[in-house]
Specification:
With about 350 residues, the chain is mainly β. It has no helices and 30 strands. The relative contact order is 0.14.
């Protein structure tokens, strides 16, 4: 596997900063820091238009513990180090997860239930940056949304609802509800055959009971395997070469602490196998506390895990998936405020 190339960058959100920092992906030097509207959460990079999108979900706080929902989508030109536009999605609010369909030039943004309707997904044209339509997912909190490689089906992980929503993207029709009892991160395998979703909504005040990853066959919509995990999982990610990654959140029972030194370290868990449905757990690595977001380099050689409690990003070498190795830790705390969250890997222009 190759190392990150010269000119590539890693974009990292500091949720409470509120900032986005652009790091050189080779030497990990911070090149640009941009101040954003309150509570930036997730990132999505459009390589064709060289634009980086960032959702601002709340006016302060986080899901379930906030002073109000935000409704903004910030558009950044990373090559110029500037904010191009701040899109107001009102009356939609609580935008969070994003999925890009580059072939059709569409950006999907998950939004919470509110004045505009039930929880759903807003669809934007990436050329004009105009909102085209809304897809209802019929759940209050569709926090993450992913699409298959063909851009035909979309899957929403729903924190509060006992199912994963399946929608047909061309028509916006809801075509399935896969029974999963509350869910967090979600990812589609590179071959499009399997969806992995973190089962159970994470409770940051107590350890989880029977946490797991659920594997769903995209052809049938059926759950084909359950991968037990030791702790609650929030982020889930599939690398380009088919390695499945998840971030376990360790909870110190009875502390009620989300941030700070008393919060236990997080863990990156790695599964690999001959096919997406046949993966087995092969390795782990210790990372910062409260891991929330995962991404990887285009070749799958490195994983990046943002830990909101520690406000760090763990850089993990995956040359041997059975021996994931933390090679660097990036500090993104701003003025002492914690909050490493959204990540995006930006290939060079």
């Amino acid at each position: 596997m190759s190392h990150p190339r010269v000119g590539d960058r890693l974009a990292v959100v500091s949720q409470s900063g509120p900032t986005v920092t652009l790091f050189d992906a080779v030497g990990h030097r911070a090149e640009t820091v941009l101040t954003l509207p309150a509570e930036p959460h997730e990132l999505c990079f459009d390589a064709e238009h060289r634009l980086l999108y960032c959702t601002s979900s709340y006016t302060s706080g986080y899901y379930g513990h906030n002073a109000g929902r935000n409704h903004l989508l910030t558009v950044i030109a990373p090559d110029d180090g500037r904010i191009v536009e701040v899109i107001d999605l009102s009356p939609e609010h609580g935008p969070h997860g994003m999925a890009l369909d580059p072939a059709r030039r569409l950006l999907y943004v998950s939004v919470e239930a509110g004045p505009a309707g039930p929880g759903g997904v807003v669809v934007l044209d990436t050329t004009t940056r105009e909102v085209l339509r809304r897809i209802n997912t019929l759940a209050p909190g569709p926090h993450w949304f992913v699409i298959d490689p063909d851009g035909r089906l979309g899957y929403a992980a729903n924190k509060e609802a006992p199912f994963v929503t399946v929608v047909e993207l061309a028509t916006g029709e809801l075509i399935g509800k896969i029974p999963v009892s509350g869910s967090e991160g979600i990812a589609v395998s590179p071959d499009g055959s399997t969806v992995a979703v973190a089962a159970q909504k994470a409770d940051f005040t107590r350890p989880a009971v029977d946490p797991s990853l659920v594997l769903i066959d995209t052809r049938t919509g059926a759950i084909v395997r359950t991968l037990p995990t030791e702790h609650s999982v929030v982020p889930v990610h599939w690398t380009a070469d088919g390695v499945l990654l998840a971030g376990e959140v360790r909870i110190a029972a009875g502390t009620g602490d989300v941030f700070g030194p008393r919060v236990p370290h997080g863990r990156l868990v790695v599964w690999a196998g001959p096919s997406a449905a046949e993966v087995e757990r092969v390795g782990t690595a210790e990372v910062g506390s409260m891991p929330l977001t995962l991404t990887s380099s285009p070749d799958g050689g490195r994983a990046y895990l943002a830990a909101v409690g520690a406000s760090t990003v763990g850089v993990v070498d995956l040359a041997d998936p059975a021996r994931p190795t933390v090679v660097d830790t990036l500090d993104v705390a701003r003025a002492g405020e914690p909050g490493a969250h959204g990540l995006a890997y930006l290939t060079g222009a």
